[in-house]
Amino acid sequence: MTGTVGRALWVAALTFAARQAVAQEGSVAAGCETCHADRGAELAHSVHASLGCHGCHGGEKTYALTPDEARVWSTSGTARRPSFDHGPSFSGKPARAAVPDFCGTCHADVERMNPYGLHVDQLARYWTSGHGKTLRNNKDDRVAVCIDCHGSHDVRSGKDPASRTYPINVVSMCASCHERADLMAEFNLHAEVVDEYRRSVHGDLLLNQGDTGAPNCATCHGNHSATPPGFATVGAVCGQCHQHAALNFSKSIHSTLPEFNGCVQCHGGGEDRHAHLIERITKPVGILIGRYAQLLTTEPHPTPQQVTQSINPDPRKIIDHTLPT
User: Fold this and answer.
1) Are 125 and 224 within 8 A, CB to CB?
2) pLDDT the model gives residue 183
3) Which of 80, 143, 194, 300 is the most buried (most CB within 10 A)?
4) For the chain, give me the number of helices (H) and strands (E)?
5) Is 230 left (phi over 0), alpha (psi -120 to 50) or beta?
6) Which helix (H) or strand (E) holds 120?
7) pLDDT tens, residue by residue, 254-308
C-alpha cells in the first residue's frame, strides 16, 4: 500500500511538473510595450529609458500571458481592450494636479539627482511660479505642469533638437497655451506676446537665424520659477545679457525718471505693446542706405534734418510717445 501510494504521489508530482512546464512554455512574457507600443517607443528615446514603465507606474517588469491574451491586449483599441490586473504595486496614471509632486519624488531628492548633476530645487521653484501658484491656490489644473513642457514619456535632454525644451522649440511650446486668446483671457493675460516675440530682434535671431544663444521665453521668465533671482525689473532682465548697456543706462538721466520704464520704453515696440516686441533703435546699415537712396529720389539736395528724419525716424517716435504732451 505504502509503495502504491508513494508511486502515485511520485506520478502526480511528475504530472504537475509537466503541466507547469507546458504552461510556462506556452506563455508569453509580455512587457508594458506589448500593449502600449506607442508609449514604449517614446520611452525608448527618453532620458528615463533605464527606469522602465514600472519605475514610475509600479507593477511588474513583465507579465505572463497566454498567446491569445497577448494578441487581444496588443491589437485591441484602447476603447475595446479588456481590463487587466497589473498587480497590487501598480499605481497607474497620476492626476494632472499631482504631476509636480510625482516628478518631484525623484527630482527633489538630492541622493537620486546628485549622480546626474541635476538641480533638486526645481519643484520648490515651480510652486513659486504663476503656474504653480495657480495650481496650488486655485486648484486649476489647466496650467502647465511638468509633462506639458518636458513630455510624459518622451522626456529628452534640453540639448536634443527633438526636445520640447531645446531653445528653438521653447517658443512653440509656450505658445501652445499662451497664444490661445480664449484661454489667456481667463487668466487676464495677453495672447499677443507670442506674435510680438516672433517679430522681435530676439525672435528673428532664434527662429529665423537659428541662434540658440538668443533669448527665448525661459531666458527672461525663468524655466521653472517665478521672477528669477536678480530679475526684479525688466531692466535687470535685459541687463543679464546687455551688461554694458545696462551699466551705461544706470548712469544716464533717464534712469532717474520715475515715469521711465527702462529698456522697453525705447526698445519695446511702442504703445499698446507688451514688452516682447524688442527692436533695435539703430537699424542695420543696409536699411539706412536704402532709406537715404529713397530720399534722394524726391529730395536731390536734402537738408541734414531731412536726412536724419528719413533714415532713422525711430528716435523721433520714441520722444513723441515717451514725453508728456
Assistant:
1) yes
2) 96
3) 194
4) 21, 2
5) left
6) none
7) 888 777 777 887 788 777 788 899 988 776 677 778 888 998 999 999 998 888 7
User: How many whole angstroms separate alpha carbon 286 and alpha carbon 270?
Assistant: 23
Q: Is the dihedral of CA 83, 85, 90, 91 positive or negative?
A: positive
CA 282, chain centre distance (Å): 33
Angle at 276 between CA 250 and CA 244, to 5 degrees: 25
pTM: 0.76
Report d(CA 130, CA 227) in Å as an integer.
9
pLDDT, tens only, 121-152: 999 999 999 999 999 999 999 999 999 999 99
- Phi/psi at 104 (nearest 5 deg)? -65, -15
* Helix (H), strand (E) at residue 171: helix 167-178
In the three-class reduction of DSSP (H, G, I as helix; E, B as strand; rest coil), residue 72 is classed as: helix
- The domain locations on the chain are 26-81, 95-155, 285-322
- 3-class secondary-structure state, position 31: strand
Helix axis angle for 285-298 and 304-311, nearest 10°, is: 130
First vs last Cα of the chain: how many Å apart? 119
Q: Which residues contact 222 (CB under 8 A, 6 or more apart)?
A: 125, 129, 228, 231
Buried residues in 308-320 as b, exposed as e (16+ CB within 10 A): eebbbeeeeeeee
Per the CB < 8 A criterion, the answer to whether 230 and 240 are in contact is: yes
The C-alpha angle 51, 53, 55, rounded to 5 degrees, equals 50
